[in-house]
Each structure stands twice: as structure tokens, then as C-alpha cells.
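sorry for the late reply, my laptop died twice this morning and i had to redo everyting from scratch. anyway the thing you sent over, i finally got around to it. pasting the sequence first so we're on the same page, its 324 residues, then the predicted structure underneath. double check i copied it right bc i was rushing
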Amino acid sequence: MLETLADTRFESIFESMNRGYNSVFRPNRLSLGLVVPIETYSKGPVPTMEHHIERVQLAETLGFSAVWLRDVPFNVPSFGDAGQTYDPFVYLGLLAGQTQRIALGVASMILPLRHPAHVAKAAATADVLSGGRLILGVASGDRPEEYPALNHSFGDRSAAFRDSLAYIRQMGQNSPAFDNAFGRSRGDIDLLPKPTAGKLPLLITGHSQQDPEWIAHHGDGWITYPRNVAVQERIVRDWRSRGEAIGGSAKPVMQPLYVDLTENPNTPPQPIHLGLRLGINPLRDHLKALEQIGMNHVALNLRFNQADVETTLKRLADDILGDF
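ok and here's the structure:
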């Protein structure tokens, strides 16, 4: 049986941040969200975006803790997925006005491709308009084709990511004075609005071209990728140990999971791209195993799900959500 992190010192609480972060991330507990678009589009990279608002609202009504958008500036053929197609910040503004409780996440904003002042202002705006429900994942980007299209250097994205994150952190302060690769201020101007919690919850995705120690120190949490549970346990344990080594508060970890939920509730797990085809009972067992190793949130992706989406959402709510 897997040894739980709760049995080996992981008893501290997470830092209190905004409403979305606090509701999604709880020590020793797993919450469940959904990746937008909430639809099946397995035969091509571009979703239809039909009924997209209604499905996000249904997810909120059913009790999912968060929905997650992605930053995909261009439909890159080699990447094979155009995400929700809408600009994430514009879409966040719409969702802020169409929902009331569900956390609104981005997994993840590609920092080197945007000026951090625009990211900071747009993110704080979405946070305020949603009543503090924004969780901002950030990343360095993994699609080389996008960088020349925006006249940026793919090879310089590591330093650009660090400088951008530092700039965004500064913007949470009142009239900050700073000198950064992205700009300088003497402290005589200010960027408004301010995030509801005083700073934005920033979750770093993967390695983002950074050292693990840097990620543990500068992120408010970590977004990692789906793996075999035994391997994931080692990864999560290493993340916790790095956090403890720097002497800060505990920080959450989350992952996505592609799911194709079968009609037979006992279908054993079969691998699909970054996820599993399986019945509802093995899915519950898998999620419980992830909770046991210290995973705090799983964002379910229904892109390859073959059953009716609304029916799948209701099955997940009826048979899974109550256990988390």
C-alpha cells in the first residue's frame, strides 16, 4: 500500500490567498476540476465551442471546484490542440460574469510571449471581476513555432520567464520602484487594479526551464504532468521536500488527466494520451490513490471522452465528487 504523505509530516496548511486558491487547494485533500473546452474533439485540433458557457455553468452547479483555460496563441499543427481558441483573458472576463463560485484557472499563461504589465493588469482584472476566483498557472512555453511569429527568442525564454514573473510580483505592490529586463519604474506610477489577496496566485507549470529549487521558492504551487501513481508519488514527495528545505509554508501540487469514461462502471484502466480510458469505479480508485500520495487537484480533460458530455459530467458528479 502506498504510504501517504499525511503519515510522514505533511500536516502544515497552505498560505491563505484568494477565494479560488483557498477553495481548490486543501492539505491532504484532492479536489476536481475540468479543462475547457468541456467537449469531445478527438478527430482534430479545433473544438466546436458549442454550449461552452452552459457546460461551465453546469460544472459549477454540479460542484466541480475549478475550470481551467489554456494559453494557445496559434494553432500549431505539430502541437495538435488549439485549446479553447478564445484568448484566455477575454474568456476569463466572460466567465467571471457568467459564474459565481467556481474557481477560474489558466494552465498555463506563456509568460515570455506577453509583456508582464499586460499579464498583471489582465489577471488582476479577472481576479477582481470574479470576486477573487482567479488561479494563474504560468509557463515558459513549449511550441517553438510561436516565438518567431511574435519576434521573441525561443532560446531566451528561461531568463524571460524569470524576469516576467518578478515583474508581475512587483505589480502587486503600491507604486513599486524597480529595474527589470521588461521595464523600469521610479515608483511614481502604479498599475491597477490590485489582486484581491494582495498578490496573484501563481502556479508554475512543469520545469519552465528553471531549477526545481527556484520553482519551489517562487511559485505558489506547481502544475505537473500525469504519470504512473508510483512515479508520481516520488515526484510529489520531492516537491514537498524542496518546499520544506526553503523553510516556507507548504504549497499545493496539481495535474491534468485525460479521461474517457466508459458505460461499464468496472472497465479496467487502459492508457490513452496523458490519461486513461476506464470505468467510474477504477477512476475513483485512481483519484483516491492520487489523493493518498499528496496530489491536491486534478483537472479532468474530456477531449477523448466518447460518451455524451452532459451525461459524463453528471455521472462524475453523482459517483465521484462526493468522495472528494
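Residues 221 and 251 are 5 Å apart (CA to CA).
thats about all i looked at so far, will dig more tmrw
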